[in-house]
Every structure is written in C-alpha cells, then in structure tokens.
Amino acid sequence: MVPEGTPGACWIRGRIVDGTGEPVVDALVESWQADPDGRFDHPDDPRGARPSTVPGFRGFGRCETDAQGRYALLTVKPGALPTPEGETEAPHLALSVFARGLLHRLVTRVYFPDEAGNATDPLLRDVDPARRDTLLASPAPDGYTFDICLQGEHETVFFAV
Amino acid sequence: MTQDTTGKLVLPGYRRDDVDAHPPLLSPGYKSTVTRAPRQPLTYLPQRLTEITGPVLGAGRLGELDHDLTRQHDGEPLGQRIIVHGRVLDGDGRAVPHTLVEIWQANAAGRYRHTLDNWPAPLDPNFTGVGRAMTDAQGRYEFVTVQPGAYPWRNHDNAWRPAHIHFSLFGRAFTQRLVAQMYFPGDPLFFQDPIFNSVRDEQARQRMVARYDHATTRPEWALAYEFDIVLRGRDATPFEDEDDDE
Question: Which residues form the Intradiol ring-cleavage dioxygenases domain (chain B) (predicted)?
Fold first, then answer.
C-alpha cells in the first residue's frame, strides 16, 4: 500500500491454509484501508476526498501467495474511522481473498493487537467472541502476522459485505 | 452525500446481491471448494467508510496496449482474433465510468502462461493472456485478444473447462469488487462444467455468456463479442435527489 522505505511502514505477513491444513499456493490477497489519519482519497467519503499525507500511499495492495501459501503486504497503520451511528471503528484493513476453489471472494478484516479501540469496535462486537481472535494480527519483528484459515477449527471470520 | 445537520455521517449504501446471483461457496461438484469454502456462516458486515470507498485506479497506470493482448509481443499470437467489448453498469443500469477492468485467459490452445499450468498444450511466445482497460465516461470497455481454448482439469473424469475469459472489476467501492468469468455462446462443454453450473439460476448463468456481435466485427480482421457486466446498485438515500437518477 506504500512504497518501500516509507517511514513507519510495517509488513503484514501471513499464511493461508485450507481445511486440511495445506497451504493455499494459488491465492491472491487484496487489501484496502484508510490512511493513518483515517481518511480516504475517494469522492464518496462524506468528509471529502483527501490525498494522504503519506507520500506514495495508495491504500490498495495486492499479493499472490507463494509455494508455502505466504503473502506479505507493506503498509502504514490506518487511523480509526467514524461511523454513521456516531461510533468509532478501530484501525483495520479490509482483505479480499481470491483462489481456485473460491467461487466468490472471501472478505475479512485485519485488526491490530493492543489497540484500545478494539474493545468498542462495532464490528468486533458483532463477531462471535470465541472467534474474534481470528481477526487480530499478532506482533512480528517487522510488523504483524495475520494467518488466514479458510476452514477448520480456527476458521477465520469471513464477512458478507 | 454529506454530513447532515446533526453532523452525522451519511454514507451511500449498496444493495446486497440476491441469494441466487452468485454460486454457493461450497459447491461439492467443484472439488476444490470442499476443502476451501468456509464452513461457518458469513458474518454480516454493515457498509461503512471502508466498504463504500475503494481504490481509484487512474488511467495513468495503464500502458497504451494493455487492452490489446495481440500486440504485447514482437509477433502476433496464434488463434482466432476477437474483440470483446461491453459496458460496466450498476444494478440500476447506470454506467460505471473510469473503472479498471482486468482480464486473463488461456491461449488459443487452452494453456495459461502460469507455473501451475503444465498440461501438454503449447505455450505461445506471443501471448501472455493478461489485459487491462479503463471504462470510458459511458462505462464502455474494449479488449482485443484471441479466442481462448478449452482445457482439461482433473476435477472429475474427462473434465474440460469451457472456453472462458476471467474478468476482474473494481467498480467504485470495495463492496462492488467482482471477479467473474465470461463464456462463449453455444459452448458444448457447459453441461459438464461444475463451475459454470455452480450458479444455480438459469438466467444468472446466461448473464455469464457473451453475445456474438456481428455489428462490431471488423471485416477481414476480427470477430466480436459483447459482454456487459452489472455490479451491485446503490440503495436510495435521503440525500440523493430524485432527479439525480440518470
């Protein structure tokens, strides 16, 4: 989502596995997010379209999985977002997963650990508490880890958007 | 679309698709879905700022020949040259202008240029099989390519995919993102293809089939197919003027 060398940039890395635990080696992951100020350079944002203050920020990223089912996205942490109901969404990325065997894309979200706003995020509140952790990235040396399980005991929460 | 008098955000909404418009993720006739389709029900995601915005992928990112898959190499690819054109519309019939359309496809022999495709059909040194185009102000796009071939896959006994072109669309918002396949009219392989038939509704299946378009053929040069793509439409909102509907 940002050029390499962007100050404060972090990697979000993860692995995609199927219901048998095999890596999904033919997936494409796409991400979409607000900039660090919680703004979008998009005409439908009622607060006004605003180019990001981060040079080269695109908000959009795309990565194919490798032979081990791994993907990696370089980004800057997004800001929190206001909702029409007057609440606040904690910082998050929207992910789409495309792959052989997925007749329609899967949509999930990456939330950040140790983010106080997670406790009051209106979407996390709607998610089954037993599965909420599947939406939380974990800290890694150069950013965060976010694994995606398409099926199985630890199946990631996917959304109807 | 603006903040109302109380300072609350008012966002555009997009209608969710009919149940039968898309295939069930778990469609056991298509074997790969069995280990890959989620088994838990999807969680309802209200459309908020992240969902009603999306990447604005400007024309500046495209090369002049990105839409012409027959002119991306030194020589011309083998195969029947075709023009594939149409409009990108939303569910209300409104054009979706200036949006990115991506395609990818097998070559005329039915082989993808991809490390995971190794069946014994020839690669074509003059064909990559990837194209990109922006829609114009009326939502129109056009590609020039060659007719893709059918190819075998190991899903079931003697399984062959009908010839198809993959389409990827962004629309205007994250919620409109769509990846689809375009098929050719009268393909004799439809009956045995679990991907084509995973779409349960007959009318919805027919919307994946292009129309042969003799009027757009170029004499002594190329055949033509027309393929319109409909993304989800907007909900009416209190802030959309009634005469705003084109």
Answer: 84-112
How is residue A135 written in tokens? 């939406």
Set out the domains of chain A in order of their start, with CATH numbers: 10-149 (2.60.130.10)
In this complex, do A158 and B12 lie within 8 Å of one another by their Cβ atoms?
A: no
The model's pTM is 0.94
What sign does the dihedral A160-B4-B9-B12 (CA atoms) show? positive
The answer to whether B35 contacts A18, with C-beta atoms less than 8 Å apart, is: yes
Q: How many CB atoms are closer than 10 A to CB A148?
A: 24
Contact B106, B113 (CB under 8 A): no
Q: What is the pLDDT along chain B (246 residues), one digit of tens a residue?
A: 445 556 789 999 999 987 777 899 999 999 999 999 999 999 999 999 999 999 987 767 789 999 999 999 999 999 999 999 999 999 889 999 999 999 999 999 999 999 889 999 999 999 999 999 999 999 999 999 999 999 999 999 999 999 999 999 999 999 999 999 999 999 999 999 999 999 999 999 999 999 999 999 999 999 999 999 999 998 754 444 444 443
User: Using the beta-carbon criterion (under 8 Å), do B37 and A60 form an inter-chain contact?
Assistant: no
Distance CA B59, CA B64 (A): 10
B19-240 — its CATH code?
Answer: 2.60.130.10
A62 contacts on B by Cβ (under 8 Å) = none
* Radius of gyration of chain B, Cα coordinates, nearest whole angstrom: 20
Beta bridge partners of B105: B165
| Contact residues on chain B for A89, CB-CB shorter than 8 A | 48-50
